[in-house]
Specification:
Elements: H1 3-15, H2 23-30, H3 44-47, H4 53-62, H5 67-70, H6 73-84, H7 89-99, H8 104-113, H9 115-126, H10 194-199, E1 205-206, H11 220-231, H12 237-251, H13 256-270, H14 276-292, E2 295-296, H15 303-313, H16 325-357, H17 364-388, H18 396-408, H19 410-435
Antiparallel strand pairs: 1-2
Helix pairs in contact: 1-4, 8-11, 8-12, 11-12, 12-13, 12-14, 13-14, 14-16, 15-17, 16-17, 16-18, 16-19, 17-19, 18-19
């Protein structure tokens, strides 16, 4: 592609103001090489709308009227790649190119096998060590996971909302020195992409800042895209379970935006997978990812009542054409073990929602609607408990497991449901458990 065209494309991508030239503009612009008419078109006004200084400089070089002044493709790449891409990009590009030659199952296994190596590569480049750590992918990779990555449906990250200081939610972004305008000098562009720089200008709203902050490696979002694009085309259920493990591992190394906008939607979609083991694993993985979330944008305020809870509710209906109650039992047990965690996570969003409603971010009508939505979220949890714990003929072992799972976190459920629902529903439910006899 001609370098002039590249410059036009880059300008349009980064200015958000449409094409750099119209047809008439470009005819007028080219005419400057033949005349000194000062009324000829000047693209400087559009170029100045680009926020990044280095991109403005690059665009001006690429659209020079003299082709020789634009430089060569190799020269542009050598001089500018570190300003538009992180330092690990060339190696990562080579790695992803190797992955693209594999089938979906092979991609998942290869990324799992090399996951720790990728983390090391990103960490070294973030610290300024650019020593080569290029990976060699094999079509068939025997995945070996560290103990921290190993997926377990019985273990979930737990953290208590109660006792947290709700006043610690910081929302006054205009007065927060962390969000002052950032000087996007060329030296800053070597460690992050242009898009990451812009992201710092619009920080999301805090949810629970007391949670530990995980080590983040922004470059992993490229590998996450490979996993997400492959996960629904994986043939083997066991490898699809490995892909779910990978989503959790990526969630531990990426920011909240990736967790909420990339990982959570794919886990929600996997709840509709025809395989009950995949559904059960997705439930547990969803809890793990949501516990990692520290911040969220106002647009995600209704994520539980409008997105997560309705998706979970579909799992309590009998599988279409599936008469294997033992497989449905796997999903129901996973729901029962994690229902208190979902309630706690929903409680975090409720607390943040109320705080935002009292601030200038949300209007007073939003406050009134948020209160009714809080009640809706509690009704969802109440319905989950009611359906999960109902008597099941010839499934006493399943009923025992479900009720024991609910009892294990009964205190947290009571705190979430509130006094009225606890008194009128949860306590009678406990009495029902006791009257059911010693079988459970």
């Amino acid at each position: 592609m001609d370098l002039f065209s590249v410059g036009c494309i880059i300008a349009e991508l980064f200015s958000d103001s449409g094409p750099l030239f119209t047809y008439a503009d470009i005819i007028s612009y080219k005419g400057q090489s033949k005349t000194d008419d000062t009324n000829k078109f000047d693209p400087s006004a559009k170029i100045d709308k680009i926020k990044q200084k280095s991109v403005r400089k690059l665009v001006r070089q690429l659209i020079q009227l003299d082709p020789k002044a634009r430089g060569s493709v190799s020269g542009i790449l050598r001089g500018w790649v570190s300003m538009g891409f992180p330092s690990y990009f060339p190696e990562l590009y080579s790695d992803i190119l190797g992955l693209m030659k594999m089938d979906p199952d092979g991609k998942i296994l290869s990324i799992m096998e090399n996951f720790d190596n990728f983390k090391t590569k990103f960490r070294l480049h973030q610290k300024g060590d650019r020593s080569s750590t290029q990976l060699a992918f094999s079509p068939i990779a025997e995945h070996k996971l560290s103990s921290s990555m190993r997926f377990s449906s019985s273990s979930v990250l737990t953290s208590s909302l109660y006792g947290r200081d709700t006043e610690s939610f910081v929302l006054n972004l205009d007065k927060d020195p962390r969000f002052d305008s950032v000087d996007l000098s060329e030296s800053q562009l070597g460690s992050s992409t242009f898009f990451e720089e812009i992201e710092t200008r619009a920080p999301p709203s805090p949810v629970c800042p007391n949670l530990p902050i995980t080590e983040q490696h922004p470059g992993m979002v490229n590998l996450l895209s490979v996993v997400c694009s492959s996960i629904h085309n994986v043939v083997s259920d066991s490898i699809k379970l490995n892909a779910i493990e990978l989503l959790v591992a990526f969630g531990e190394n990426l920011d909240d935006k990736c967790r909420l906008q990339r990982i959570v939607p794919y886990l929600i979609s996997l709840l509709h997978d025809p395989s009950p083991p995949i559904q059960a694993a997705s439930i547990t993985a969803l809890v793990k990812i949501l516990y990692l979330v520290n911040t969220f944008p106002p647009s995600d305020i209704k994520i539980f009542p409008e997105y997560i809870f309705p998706a979970l509710e579909t799992l309590m209906k009998p599988s279409n054409g599936n008469n294997d109650s033992s497989q449905d039992a796997l999903v129901l047990c996973a729901l029962a073990k994690n229902i208190a965690s979902f309630a706690e996570l929903s409680g975090r969003f409720i607390s943040a929602k109320k705080y935002l409603s009292e601030s200038t971010v949300l209007s007073q009508p939003s406050l009134d609607s948020s209160l009714s939505e809080d009640f809706i979220e509690r009704i969802f949890v109440k319905r989950f408990i009611s359906v999960l714990s109902e008597d099941r003929e010839n499934e006493q072992a399943l009923l025992c497991d479900i009720r024991c799972a609910i009892l294990d976190r009964i205190t947290g459920l009571a705190q979430f449901l509130g006094q009225e629902i606890t008194t009128n529903f949860l306590i009678p439910k406990l009495r029902e458990f006791l009257r059911s006899g010693p079988t459970w």
